[in-house]
Design goal:
3-stranded antiparallel sheet; alpha+beta; 11 strands; 234 residues; 35% helix; globular
């Protein structure tokens, strides 16, 4: 487990699924007992596939840890992880988006051996992608729009495909849409040397997004240790 506070931004918590995978059943049961509420523990018991249960628990632990750490840092509150109740939207365009019943934005992503959660006072989207070859279909989805100015276009074309994908997903997750919309509706417009990226929404999605423009969001996109990571927040 690692917790990071972005200066002037959200709190991140990263959980190693690989580490959890190496624990024995007794230790995993103890960790679940320590961090899950009774309803969450009951739900975990219904997840019969070991990988599914481990990924689910890692995600919940990441969200709970991010929320608890954010409270300690920004308001001095002390809350146990088992008292942070992670739920998801059940219906509509935002079905599956996590929330904790508090005035906080929550983001969650899994990939490979890690789960990462982000927590802050406003809208947040996060994505994590393990580096992997991406075929022609993805190359088409991730093509840089021709309207992008030449300097920015060169920078975006230098951006690895998994990182472009992570940026688009982070934006879609910030709104709670996920892949219900074509990723091409998120049009990347620049990737700066300080790892910030900029974007705008296409007409097919703009009408469903909250008020405000992409300029009111901050962002981060970088590769680290074989993973592509992207974060957007207000």
């Amino acid at each position: 487990m690692r917790v990071l506070h972005i200066e002037g931004g959200p709190t991140l918590a990263v959980v190693s699924i690989a580490w959890l995978r190496r624990r024995g059943p007794a230790m995993l049961a103890a960790l679940e007992s320590q961090h899950l509420s009774a309803p969450e523990a009951a739900h975990a018991g219904k997840l019969t596939l070991p990988k599914r249960r481990l990924d689910w628990f890692a995600g919940r632990l990441a969200v709970k840890s991010a929320v608890a750490a954010h409270g300690r840092r920004h308001s001095g509150t002390q809350v146990r992880t088992r008292d942070v109740h992670v739920e998801v939207e059940l219906k509509g365009l935002r079905a599956g988006k996590p929330h904790v019943g508090l005035p906080l934005g929550i983001g969650l992503a899994h990939s490979g051996d890690f789960a990462v959660a982000a927590c802050g006072p406003h809208t947040i989207g996060v994505d994590l992608e393990r580096d992997r070859p991406m075929g022609p279909h993805f190359a088409d989805l991730l093509a840089v729009p021709s309207a992008v100015e030449p300097g920015a276009r060169r920078r975006l074309e230098d951006m690895p495909l998994p990182l472009r994908w992570a940026c688009k997903e982070a934006v879609l997750k910030a709104f709670g849409f996920g892949l219900r919309f074509d990723p091409r509706e998120v049009r990347l417009t620049n990737w700066r040397p300080d790892d910030r990226f900029t974007w705008r929404l296409g007409p097919g999605i703009a009408a469903y997004a909250p008020p405000g423009d992409s300029g009111s969001y901050r962002s981060l996109a970088r590769e680290t240790d074989g993973y592509a990571f992207a974060l957007v927040w207000r």
